[in-house]
Amino acid sequence: MIPHDETMMLKTPFHSRIEAACEINMWEDWKGYTSPQAYTEVEQEYFAVRSNTGVFDISPMIKYRFTGPDAGAYLNRLVTRDISKIGIDRVAYTVWCDDNGQVMDDGTIFHLAENDYRLCAYARCLDWLMWSAEGFDVTIVDETADVAALAVQGPTSCAIFKEMGFEGIENLKPFGITRFPFEDSEVMISRTGFTGDLGYEIWIDPELAEAFWDALFEAGKHREIRPIGSAALDMLRTETGFIQAGVDFVPAEEAIRTGRSRSPFELGLGWLVSFDKPVFNGRKALLKEKKEGSRYAFVYLDVEGNKPAEHAFIYSGDKEVGTVTTGAWCPTAKTNVAFAQVDAKYGKVGQELVAEIYYERELKWTRVMAKCTVIEGAVFNPPRKRQTPAPDF
Amino acid sequence: MINVDKKYDVIVVGGGHNGLVCATYLAKAGRKVLVLEANAALGGASATSEFSDQFSVSSCAHWLFQLNPEVASDMDLKGHGLELTARDLNTIALAEDGNHLTIGANSLEGASVSDEDRKAFVAFNKQMLKFSKLLAGAFNRRAPKLVEGNLTDRITLAKLGLGMKMLGKTDMSDLMRLALINIYDVMEENFENDLLKAAISLDSLLGSHMGPRSPNTVFGYLYRRMGDVYGFNGPAVVKGGMGAVGEALGNAAKAAGVDIEVSSAVSKINVEVDRATGVTLADGRVVNAGMVVSNADPKTTFNKLVGLTNIETGVARRVKTMRMKGDAAKLHIALDSLPDFKGLTKDQMGQRLLIAPTMDYIELAFNACKYGEYSKAPAMDISIPTIHDPSLAPDGKHVMSVIVQFAPYELEGGWASQKENFKNLVIDRIADYAPNLKDKIIDSELLTPADLEDRFHIHGGHWHHGEISLDQILTMRPFPGASQYGTSVDGLFLCSAGTHPGGGVMGLAGHNAAKEIIKRGKSA
Amino acid sequence: MNKYDAIVIGAGHNGLTNAAYLAKAGLNVLVLEKNAYIGGATVSRELYPDWKYSNCSYVCSLLRPEIIRDLELPRHGLQVVPYGGGVTFKENGDYFGSHADHERLLREIARHSKRDASAYERYEADVMKQTRLIRPFLMRTPPDPTSLKPKDLKELSLLAKSFGSMGEEGLADTMRFWTMSIGDFLDEYFESDVIKAHLAGSGIIGTALGVYSPGTAYVLLHHYMGDVDGSVGAWGFARGGMGSVSAALSKSFLSFGGTIKCDAEVGQIIVKNGKTKGVALANGDELYADIVVSNLDPKRTFLKIMDEGDLPSSVVTKAKNFKIRGSSGKLNIALDGLPTFTGLPKDSPLCLGEKHFSDSLPKMERAYDEWKAGTWSKDPYVDMLIPTQIDPTMAPPGKHMMSVFVQYAPPKVNGGEWTPEDKAGFEKTVIDQISNYSPDFKDLILHCETRTPQDIENEVGLTEGNIFMGELTFDQLLFNRPFPGYAQYRGPVKGMYMCSSGTHPGGGVMAAPGANAAREILQDLRLTNTVPGGYDDD
């Protein structure tokens, strides 16, 4: 039995440090955890990641652990990607679908050891995971609270880790996993992130969380390391073209209205679907969709002007063809970018469309019809993101 | 036997009546068909077994009353040896004091039944039959899809709709109300006599996990009365026991060119990515075919034969949540001679006998099942087939077959330690009506739902291969997404009672599945 | 003057709503009430000095916002204050708290089962799908599926379109939902007993069925389809007790020039030459109107205040067969202070919500088994609230009023009338049960009003004390309510109408039946419609 105050807002293992650093007291509820929206000033936090190093506490991320002889086969049936191609100490981004081929969530799978995987997801999905486990010899544990995690992102992040004594970290390839001793234990580091920049995520025993935070900030003090909140992260992910569940698509099982969910193809994530493997959830429906065509396309738009196109309607001529799910001015790329769901036939790169944008200046609302063009994807995509060995800045 | 040189088009898993019917229709349509049956005899739950030295009995279903005439004549079951030694039997609802009620197809006798009840019974029968006839229009074809349906489905729906309209305003509105409510209320509305009310109630829920007060039970009754639409004015006794139905069907199948191998259990339906390719037998042999039709119930088919890991999660969830809790046990008694039932002649003992004195008695018996207990005063459906068919027992000796409702599949504490107690309790209960019964018993056997599961490979020991209630019929049977015999696995079809229209020795599930497969042609 | 345009029998909330809309259309309308006070089952009564009891209906969610706004009920004094959350106490001393805050609720579910916390989101979405399907039909007259009239065909095709929009599997799931038991339905989502028990309550409240009876999943829906300020499924208190609802409705009605007569029990609806002419009161007085609207339940309407000779025999049979079962009782208790509940801090926000003491489905089912056997449940399912924690008007400061809805209580005990001993035994059962979870509760009781189904029938006039004026099973819903062929508010006699909860969309303080009936009456009179359409849910 747990006393009732356990259902009060939870605190992450880094909370003492975050609370001390959170000068403007802007908090939000991230799946039950007290999570900072911003520490000092959103723009500064954003630029920390693009120019130095920003640290975001990702401990509230939902984490499941899969072990047992069928763990790999189980995940292969669960998600759209071919898990057998993910080697040990590698990470893969993937989506998983319901039987109708509609995306339930996206997340990353960490292949930690033989028959040992971790899935990081936006939403709780233990129910679906357990239904999916029928017939498999796999043990599933929700380890959200058992693992503390930080995203350490930005051009100087590798240098900071070297400063901490993590020798050879520069040789870690994107989506690779490595481990270093820390105190009497170890820290796991993966070259992954949600910012589209050079960066890492660290995974550690909650007991060591504060010590790690302190050591990290000590090592980074000459490289202008700073903690960042979710507001800055949102700008970063937009600039680099990462979609977010609940914002850019409705998770399939939470969709109430018929037709509101989307397939991987309709989210521009067709590359995550591998038909070249045993049966997986959504296979049949996705094969059919591939043959017969999708209803929608998910597009990245370069929007004329500097007014963010958030929630804008998208037109082709006079015809309404879609809506914007995420839209923002990107401070580094100096581009006005928007993600939109449009009717499938308007999804080709180069397609010209129009966004109906409303913006407010001193209580005066103005409507602009901004021309926009469908572009490939990320408007910010620096070489340092991929370079191995990683540069120092 | 399996012909190793033959390239089979279709393998039917399970030689139950629906499997054999399906196989025969497919063979007649030119398919090369192989039927594989785990048991030594064909027929599945239409079985005869020797439960004691020289005493045989229909070991699961014991009456024939719903066999579809079209199927029977297409199979030429008569020509293949099916013989009824008695038919259109009455049902006698036993009273402890011997003042029994005899229920005929359209008449009532005894039990001081009132004229009002007699009149009401005729009217009630007439209306029920009218409704059953309407339902029959949807039984011998696939359940129509409601939203994505094609022309065939829309024709079925239109016919049903028209049939509803043809009922007239009064009957139509009655049907809309009755189909959803419980038999208890309907009985209270129509009749006074307790035995009558209880007998009809029992008919509406035999084999299912419901009591007379459970809504949906009127539908169960309409379902049972389908037998009347098919020309049965009461239950029939099959010569040689119900196993003879399986035998006749087997002969029909063989005559149509079907290869059959008995004692040949399928351990696996082989699936390559999402297409069935054949089966693996328990002895390790692999037989390939372009199509596999499973006559096993849906849970057994997917849980055991296909494997939940080889289908998508949503379907696996449907399989797991499908309701299929067997509540009926079977008791078989070898008798030295006929016992004396208070107030019954020998001829009357040959009728269908019920122990269910009141509706509340049945409801109370059902209560126990809800909590995983067996009923201390169960309801029963009794047959003494040897009165009509002496071949089942040595000269002058008899066999009594009893369907005992309610004994749950998942008994709290397990059946092993409680089975004997339950058997004795049931025998005691019958002895209340036939006081010298115990002196006549040579041997007896109780099959709990768990035993029925073992013997007939039916999950939960549920005769109907899935509860027959409104949430599991038509397009919801066995579960949404698999309602037209095809499954999410290409080349895998279902033909068991778990599919539309459901259980009972009717043969329509097999018939409809075959028609669907033939209709789909190459795309199946 | 004893001649009116329309007479409405029964000043319950539906009668008043109906009357208000008729009066708004310019008719001269009289409402007759047998009791000395209006409201029917929507009342606040001072049965103990300085305490107000909502002694029948006790919470508010279903009352249609279209009607609240249109009849200007807030201006006439109605204020609905939402309350959040609820608790189901477990036998082992723990509890399940249904927090109003979504994330906190999920954390609390996770405390009992992590799997259930994630299943809850699927459950919520699936129930909301069903809710969205039914809500647009609350403010509409159900079509007659046997009719070929253009209006019925149009409404039927709208119904078909809504159902069709669910998709093939969605529609199959919908049909499953409408025919399943709440127990089986919840088993498809949850593993934790207490969570299933907490959610199952809505499937049986006011219904003579158990959690394992097919059809109870829909009853759950009936409790979810209301909203407070657009928050679908939320419940609230009417400030001042449920009597404020009827008070506001009556003021609205009076503002349109209507008349209400209390202590005026109707003995008979007068029918001449197949047409209604008015009513004869129990005291012999006759009052005349060409339109007579009955807000009594269908059984009372057709079997008590109408002459069998005036009715088609099929209607008499249908009324006799109409399912309206007494299954619940009520305790209204004046408390000297706020009771404490073991394990739950006094300041927990959960205290503000409803409380239950049944922690598993089998326990709830056994409670039903006892009702079937003819007695009240020995370990009943209760829905208990202390509205004074939110509403200061119902008891003196520091004192409290507790409303305990009790399921199951039979209309007759073992086939006989309730005796004073039975009633005392029933009261003791409930008080003892609460005391098991609240040690100081008994000592705080200043006054307790215990109401058996028989008391409710005698006082309010609900047959068998059935709170919904007819079971909410699918055979008595939509075009089957109250019975097929008479679901469009028109009675079998010209000029006679029905507007009670026994008509579509059914019980709960919704007022939709009253409004829908008014729309049909005005249509028959070729008068301009005054009844608002339903809000578009999208």
From TrEMBL, chain A:
Q: Which residues bind substrate?
A: 201
Q: Where is the Aminomethyltransferase C-terminal domain?
A: 299-366
Domain GCVT N-terminal spans what residues? 27-277
The UniProt GO MF terms for this protein read: transaminase activity
List the keywords (alphabetical): Aminotransferase, Transferase
PANTHER family (alphabetical): AMINOMETHYLTRANSFERASE, AMINOMETHYLTRANSFERASE, MITOCHONDRIAL
Q: What is this protein called?
A: Aminomethyl transferase family protein
**Native source species:** SAR92 clade bacterium
Automatic annotation (TrEMBL), chain B:
Q: Give start and end of each Amine oxidase domain.
A: 19-517
Lineage: superkingdom: Bacteria
Fetch the InterPro entries from UniProt.
Amino_oxidase (IPR002937), FAD/NAD-bd_sf (IPR036188)
Q: What SUPFAM superfamilies does the entry give?
A: FAD/NAD(P)-binding domain
Single annotated GO MF: oxidoreductase activity
Q: Name the PANTHER family for this protein.
A: PHYTOENE DEHYDROGENASE, PYRIDINE NUCLEOTIDE-DISULFIDE OXIDOREDUCTASE DOMAIN-CONTAINING PROTEIN 2
Q: What does this protein do?
A: Probable oxidoreductase that may play a role as regulator of mitochondrial function.
Assembly and binders: Interacts with COX5B; this interaction may contribute to localize PYROXD2 to the inner face of the inner mitochondrial membrane.
What is the protein named?
A: Pyridine nucleotide-disulfide oxidoreductase domain-containing protein 2
Q: Which organism is it from?
A: SAR92 clade bacterium
TrEMBL record, chain C:
Lineage: superkingdom: Bacteria
SUPFAM superfamilies assigned to the protein according to its UniProt record, in alphabetical order: FAD/NAD(P)-binding domain (SSF51905)
Question: Which residue positions does the secretion signal occupy?
Answer: none
Kindly name one Pfam family recorded for this protein: NAD_binding_8
Its recorded name reads NAD(P)/FAD-dependent oxidoreductase
Taxonomic source organism: SAR92 clade bacterium
